[in-house]
Sequence to fold (117 residues):
Amino acid sequence: QVHIVESGGGLVQPGGSLTLSCGASGLTFPFPRYTMTWYRQAPGKERELVATDLVSTTYADSVKGRFAVIRNNAKSTISLQMNSLEPADTAVYYCSAKFQNTGAEYWGKGTLVTVSS
Fold:
């Protein structure tokens, strides 16, 4: 059974930093073959892609230069380093693992990030 688990959310002041982590277990294929993606959904808004990583990483324009993805294939984890946080970054952050050949995608339950003074 596949498990995707996010952690690291919390309350942070504007301008602060936070690192989210996502661990994957039970995957059918080796972890490096999965596209790992961070999404977020703010209250009352649609889910949006934050960053996606396979061989390279692509970031949403809204987080470029502030967020960074760190992938550890040996540990089947991916982290999201978030700097210069803004209130607009407040959202539930989700991690997904997708195997492109079959389209199978697995999701975590999310972790809440609140940016507020």
Observations:
- The first strand starts at residue 3 and ends at 7.
- The mean pLDDT is 97.
- The two ends are 40 Å apart (CA to CA).
